[in-house]
Write a structure and sequence with these properties.
7 strands, about 110 residues, mainly beta, globular, five-stranded antiparallel β-sheet
C-alpha cells in the first residue's frame, strides 16, 4: 500500500503521498500537487462518527485496518443516494478528494 500521512487538520485521518515525498520533513509544507489524488484503494468502510467544522459537515469512516477517512457531506449524500449501507458498512473502491483545505474520500 502507498505511504499515507496524517492530516494536520484532522488527526487520525490519512492522506496518500507520492513515494518520492517520504523525506519531506513537514506535511504543512506540501502542496496539493504533491498528493496523489488519483490513488484508488479498495476497502470496507464503516461509518464511525460525524462532526461539524467551521464551514462544513464531515463524516468519518473507519477502514478494515483501523484507519480513519473523512468524507464530505456532499459525497456522503451521493453515497447514500446511489449505494446501500448495511449496518453502516460499505465495500468498494475509494479515491481521495480535496475541497478547500480539507481532504476526504469518495466512492469511485
Amino acid at each position: 500500500m502507498r505511504d499515507l500521512v496524517e492530516s494536520p487538520d484532522n488527526p487520525g485521518l490519512l492522506l496518500p503521498i507520492y513515494p518520492s515525498d517520504r523525506e519531506m520533513a513537514s506535511y504543512t509544507n506540501r502542496t496539493i500537487k504533491e498528493f496523489d489524488m488519483d490513488y484508488v484503494f479498495q476497502d470496507t468502510l464503516t461509518l464511525d462518527t460525524a462532526w461539524k467544522g467551521r464551514s462544513a459537515v464531515h463524516f468519518v469512516f473507519k477502514g478494515t485496518h483501523c484507519k480513519h477517512y473523512n468524507m464530505f457531506l456532499s459525497d456522503f449524500t451521493e453515497l447514500v443516494r446511489t449505494n446501500t449501507l448495511v449496518n453502516g458498512e460499505i465495500d468498494g473502491d475509494w479515491r481521495f478528494v480535496k475541497k478547500g483545505k480539507s481532504f476526504g474520500v469518495r466512492k469511485v
